[in-house]
């Protein structure tokens, strides 16, 4: 593109037009692109924030990778943990016993998942210690039959720290009266809150030794080993790499497979919302078509003069491409700036709106996450900016081509 084409294109963009409606449409196009960019960047950042928040809460209780025995029992867990730690991505390992059970207190019964843990090792693979709202994880001592319950479960049972509840194992014992379930009284030594209803209402923690005793595991048998990675997004790859390293017959699964539905749903929502909001940018880009078509009609005498002075049709086309692209570039830049500012301050903006209008968007009693999180990603912002630029560039092609086809003689006939 030669300097004079760029110069004339920029001059046409700044120049006052005889038809002020064209300037108004140009302004609407620019504001439309800015608004679309701002909305799209903010929504994508909020969806990233929700995904990160859900992932943090789930993986605070779950593990990055879980190695379990084929039949639900793993005999030599220390060797399995040692072999898994040979992978440089594996940061820590901890054994666990997982089983079904029921807890009973004052004629109230709830089904639960019982997890036996070693408190000192469990702290290395999960954030349970940080989630304790009453008591400590270290209160689980072998032989004392202490139990830690989720806050929702404690509320449903009506229990507090120090109360005694009965844990019922589905593994029956043979008696003269028939097969009866095994019962054991446990003392509540702590209450945790993961922020995830599934765990807060249906998970209880006991010491590994107590779980082995209750569920009749022989020797040092456990259900499996839980692993923590340096980079949780490497879990699928590390799980594949661990398969040939583990000498025992085990099943290996990672968090992306265990909780795939949660993250897949959020990802689909993010893509659909992005597609819908991208239509705002597309509509604004189509406004550029209207702006340039009217600009071409308004500038027909000028186009004719440029053609008589030797300008080629390609040069005329480039002049109007510059004019339309400049509108898109300015709108894109303003949209990126406004979108990034709003994305990084969305929590403060929402809090101000809630306080001003005395409303609450996400009630703690109803929603899983009561605050609107935001996590802007540079790759998302760059992708949105590129899409906006490409759409505005495409919108300039037809009007610019039409300008290049203007006949000088016809344009100057009535001037």
Query: Between the first and last Cα atoms, what is the distance in angstroms?
Result: 30 Å
Query: In the residues, how many domains can be counted?
Result: 2
SSE arrangement, N to C? HHEHEEHHEEHEEHEHEHEHHHHHHHH
Describe the strand arrangement of the main beta sheet, using strand numbers: 2-3-8-5-7-6
Proportion of helical residues: 40-55%
Mean pLDDT: 81
The shape is elongated
- Strand content bin: 15-25%
Q: Which radius of gyration do the C-alpha atoms yield?
A: 32 Å
Count of alpha and pi helical runs: 17
Poorly predicted runs are: none
- Provide the structure class: alpha+beta
Number of strands: 10
Largest sheet: 6 strands, mixed, barrel
What does it look like?
The protein has 415 residues and is α+β, with helices and mostly antiparallel strands. It folds into two domains: 3-56 and 262-412, no CATH class; 63-258, no CATH class. The chain contains 17 helices and ten strands. It has a six-stranded mixed barrel with strand order 2-3-8-5-7-6, surrounded by four helices. A hairpin with a 2-residue loop joins strand 6 and strand 7 (178-192).
What tags apply to this protein structure?
415 residues; alpha+beta; 2 domains; 10 strands; 20% strand; elongated
